[in-house]
Amino acid sequence: MQRETVWLVEDEQGIADTLVYMLQQEGFDVELFERGLPVLDKARQQVPDVMILDVGLPDISGFELCRQLLALHPALPVLFLTARSEEVDRLLGLEIGADDYVAKPFSPREVCARVRTLLRRVRKFSTPSPVIRIGHFELNEPAAQISWFDTPLTLTRYEFLLLKTLLKSPGRVWSRQQLMDSVWEDAQDTYDRTVDTHIKTLRAKLRAINPDLSPINTHRGMGYSLRGL
């Protein structure tokens, strides 16, 4: 059975050595990078099963590296490691497509557990199903793709899962907690503005294609729904 691959981008030697050892003990093939730019070069030829990124790299911001990697591989699961745990960093990391966020100091076993959680989530949402049209949307689950007015949307994984959830029940009002339970059910580190942040980025992407329609409704004190299509 082929071992799943993890690329670890971490410039602190002690942390890197510990994580490489623990991940290998968990059965992963691990490749370590001390800089971010070589990762971009290699990612143009191949892709790992999971990417672990340190935010504070010496040659490129971990956030910018994540943005460029997801432009190459939109479905790539990304876990951030950082010494900065302020909400603004968490928001930025999740807005650009990171799947999870671990603040230093952390338990290496926790990192391994979160990697396994990400892989389970990817397998769960990769089950094929028919392409369906819902109003001006087209949902292609096998390709993890949603189009709006026949224009494919460039979405992060959680943006895709969030919009897919709304699409499958047009008109239903989803509370923030219901959306968290449905979309982020396996996430171990979420916060109050997670749903709002992703709704904001979804609206911006929809508006860029058709500025005259806003299909996502806000129900103050209740949650969100997709306008009847």
UniProtKB/TrEMBL annotation:
<keyword id="KW-0804">Transcription</keyword>
<keyword id="KW-0238">DNA-binding</keyword>
<feature type="DNA-binding region" description="OmpR/PhoB-type">
    <location>
        <begin position="129"/>
        <end position="228"/>
    </location>
</feature>
<dbReference type="InterPro" id="IPR001867">
    <property type="entry name" value="OmpR/PhoB-type_DNA-bd"/>
</dbReference>
<dbReference type="InterPro" id="IPR039420">
    <property type="entry name" value="WalR-like"/>
</dbReference>
<dbReference type="InterPro" id="IPR011006">
    <property type="entry name" value="CheY-like_superfamily"/>
</dbReference>
<dbReference type="Pfam" id="PF00486">
    <property type="entry name" value="Trans_reg_C"/>
</dbReference>
<feature type="modified residue" description="4-aspartylphosphate">
    <location>
        <position position="54"/>
    </location>
</feature>
<dbReference type="GO" id="GO:0032993">
    <property type="term" value="C:protein-DNA complex"/>
</dbReference>
<feature type="domain" description="OmpR/PhoB-type">
    <location>
        <begin position="129"/>
        <end position="228"/>
    </location>
</feature>
<dbReference type="InterPro" id="IPR001789">
    <property type="entry name" value="Sig_transdc_resp-reg_receiver"/>
</dbReference>
<dbReference type="InterPro" id="IPR036388">
    <property type="entry name" value="WH-like_DNA-bd_sf"/>
</dbReference>
<dbReference type="GO" id="GO:0000156">
    <property type="term" value="F:phosphorelay response regulator activity"/>
</dbReference>
<keyword id="KW-0805">Transcription regulation</keyword>
<dbReference type="GO" id="GO:0042802">
    <property type="term" value="F:identical protein binding"/>
</dbReference>
<keyword id="KW-0902">Two-component regulatory system</keyword>
<keyword id="KW-0597">Phosphoprotein</keyword>
<dbReference type="Pfam" id="PF00072">
    <property type="entry name" value="Response_reg"/>
</dbReference>
<dbReference type="GO" id="GO:0000987">
    <property type="term" value="F:cis-regulatory region sequence-specific DNA binding"/>
</dbReference>
<keyword id="KW-0963">Cytoplasm</keyword>
<dbReference type="InterPro" id="IPR016032">
    <property type="entry name" value="Sig_transdc_resp-reg_C-effctor"/>
</dbReference>
<dbReference type="GO" id="GO:0005829">
    <property type="term" value="C:cytosol"/>
</dbReference>
<feature type="domain" description="Response regulatory">
    <location>
        <begin position="5"/>
        <end position="119"/>
    </location>
</feature>
<protein>
    <submittedName>
        <fullName>Two-component system response regulator CreB</fullName>
    </submittedName>
</protein>
<dbReference type="GO" id="GO:0045893">
    <property type="term" value="P:positive regulation of DNA-templated transcription"/>
</dbReference>
